[in-house]
Design brief:
Strand content: 25-35%
Order of helices and strands: HHEEEEEHEEEHHHEEEEE
Number of helices: 6
Bound molecules: zinc ion
Helix content: 10-25%
Structural class: alpha+beta
Largest sheet: 7 strands, antiparallel
């Protein structure tokens, strides 16, 4: 439990607390994608790859720039922990912190997924989400968060002394990325980063601000779709938490596979060009 406060509130406490918030990053200067142009080309797509991610395992796949990628629920409710890499430079990868700062805690239709510094550019644009009806529930929960990290065996060991569970998302992603990249598992582990929690339903408790999860509303046939802005390698784990209604980091939850499909459109979105690396000169004033 969190400690109760020990400092007496000042006389103007209520006035200080009632100051209205301002959004940290005003998004009116953020270049927004032309969603209509992306969606216009979705009607004529050719399936080019299909990957099944087994339960409590992870798989990698590639998505060429200008292609669509769908992550589909299959057989039963299941959460996926997604990493994204630039296919030509694995040092450029999904930056959930800045994606969260720019879009909000959960991502959906029209949001862009950004890469880390110094690259900071859109890697993918979300073009369809069959769970977009969910919004935020009465607990403050939403779907597809960029606030979680990924379940990992180190935290599990911290919380359950002596535990050596090997199928946390972090380990699954490490093994899959090692296979894909040819790197040793030790080397590959350093590339695994905080995830987009596909289909996971999460939020922060209103009273204590703690990260919570609840049963995912996803059902077989639901999917999240994005357009690849650059050549991508995706890597996703079918979380050992299954629908994340109770626990993760164990073999107790019911888990299902996830399916990934890659589609080639017949043409590119009108006006689309591949986003360049970030335009800051990198000199830091030196
Ligand atoms: Zn997990």
């Amino acid at each position: 439990m969190k400690q109760h406060s020990i400092t007496a509130a000042p006389a103007d406490a209520e006035a200080r607390k009632s100051v209205a918030p301002v959004v940290c990053y005003p998004t009116d200067t953020l270049p927004r994608p032309n969603l209509a142009a992306y969606r216009e080309i979705r009607s004529d797509l050719e399936l080019t790859a299909r990957v099944v991610v087994p339960p409590r395992e992870a798989e990698c796949w590639t998505v060429p720039a200008g292609h669509f990628c769908r992550i589909l629920s299959f057989e039963g409710p299941q959460v996926g922990d997604l990493n994204l890499f630039n296919a030509h430079d694995f040092n450029e990868r999904l930056y959930t912190g800045k994606t969260r700062a720019l879009n909000g805690t959960h991502v959906g239709l029209g949001d862009q997924l950004f890469s880390n510094l110094p690259f900071l550019r859109p890697m993918a644009t979300i073009t369809h989400d069959t769970l977009d009806w969910y919004g935020f529930d009465k607990f403050g929960g939403g779907v597809h968060d960029v606030i979680g990290t990924r379940c990992d065996p180190y935290t599990n060991n911290l919380l359950h002394e002596g535990s050596q569970y090997h199928h946390c998302c972090h380990s699954n992603l490490t093994r899959a990325f090692a296979r894909h990249s040819g790197k040793s598992p030790r080397e590959a582990e350093a590339y695994i980063h905080d995830v987009l929690n596909v289909f996971m339903c999460t939020g922060f408790t209103r009273d204590t601000g703690q990260y919570f999860m609840k049963a995912s509303p996803v059902r077989p046939g639901d999917f999240l779709e994005f357009f690849a802005e650059i050549d991508l390698v995706g890597c996703m784990s079918a979380c050992p938490g299954g629908d994340c209604s109770t626990e993760h980091s164990s073999d107790r939850a019911r888990c299902y596979p996830l399916v990934v499909e890659v589609y080639r459109p017949m043409r590119l979105p009108v006006g689309w060009t591949m986003p360049p690396r970030n335009g800051y000169d990198g000199s830091h004033g030196l």
